[in-house]
From TrEMBL:
Source species: Alteribacter lacisalsi
Gene Ontology molecular functions: rRNA (guanine-N2-)-methyltransferase activity
InterPro entries: 16SrRNA_methylTrfase_J, SAM-dependent_MTases_sf
Segment forming the signal sequence: none
Family annotation (Gene3D superfamilies): Vaccinia Virus protein VP39 (3.40.50.150)
Name of protein: Protein-L-isoD(D-D) O-methyltransferase
Length: 282
């Protein structure tokens, strides 16, 4: 851990990010901060009596805070980002109760299958996919932004949901900080059953202001050009299907040659591309 006391504030500027703890740091918080420093190559700053706003002003950068049980990224003003299942928890419990989920159905997920989420974000789809494929299956998630990736990876590793089935599904997700294209290009042909994409919508969705900090971390050009690169590699890697979740007005469905599964009254649809049934040589 690179330790920078308060006296170093004036000696450094324009940092991408600094890492600190909540006041009166516990050993758990310090260990969490240490892991973040190592993963993100960012300096650690003693919290002392300084507020987050004070640290942001002095360092002119976002502040990642190791708290009890979580990491919290403070970006601009009062905006913050941390891992919490939120809607994913609702989906997970509903899937456990009913065995039904729109994404699971579109992807045709069953026990023992493998699923690769190329746009992990906060991991909602990956969590439900992990429930669907079970202990015998595998779920991979790639996220290009290292800060978001580490926050989510740490969340998957330590978050306590209060539901053992959901918690274990969370722990099974293999998270990689990588560009989706790099990850796909390093995978053999027909090596994953389903490759899944859920890029940031180009269309604005009402009521999505809570995603503002997440949008700041997302790569603005992560899917351009979408057709020429991502879809072509995904089709090579996928053993069974490639799935695109996107805004119902999105032109990516047509660009990528997907068959659209229309969801009436929903803001997003699923585009599905399936490989023809044939003997697959691994």
């Amino acid at each position: 851990m690179v330790h920078l006391p308060y006296k170093c504030f004036r000696e450094m500027s324009d940092r991408q990010m600094i890492i600190t703890t909540a006041p009166k740091a516990t050993d758990e918080m310090k260990a969490r901060a240490d892991r973040a420093c190592t993963a993100l190559s960012a300096p650690y700053v003693e919290r002392g009596r300084f507020s987050i706003a004070s640290l942001q002003r002095r360092w002119n950068c976002p502040v990642l805070v190791a708290e009890a049980g979580r990491l919290v990224l403070h970006t601009h003003g009062k905006e913050s980002l941390f891992y919490h299942p939120n809607v994913a928890m609702i989906r997970a419990k509903q899937y456990i109760r009913t065995g039904s989920d729109p994404m699971v159905k579109a992807a045709g997920l069953k026990k023992g299958m493998s699923f690769a989420d190329m746009t992990l974000g906060l991991g909602s789809d990956a969590l439900v996919a992990s429930l669907a494929v079970g202990n015998s299956g595998k779920v991979f998630g790639t996220e290009v932004n290292p800060v978001l990736c580490h926050i989510v990876k740490e969340g998957f590793r330590t978050f306590k949901t209060g539901n053992d089935t959901v918690t274990q599904a969370m722990r099974r997700i293999h998270t990689t900080c990588s560009d989706h294209l790099d990850w796909l290009r390093n995978m053999p042909n027909s090596s994953v059953d389903v490759v899944f994409f859920d890029p940031m919508f180009k269309e604005e969705v009402k009521g999505s202001d809570g995603l503002s900090p997440l949008k700041q971390l997302a790569a603005s050009s992560q899917f351009e050009p979408f057709l020429q690169n991502a879809v072509a590699e995904a089709r090579r890697v996928a053993r069974k299907a490639v799935i695109l979740k996107d805004h119902f007005r999105s032109g990516r469905f047509q660009e990528g040659g997907f068959t659209v599964e229309v969801r009436p009254s929903a803001t997003y649809h699923f585009g599905v591309w399936k490989k023809q049934d044939r003997a697959i040589m691994d």
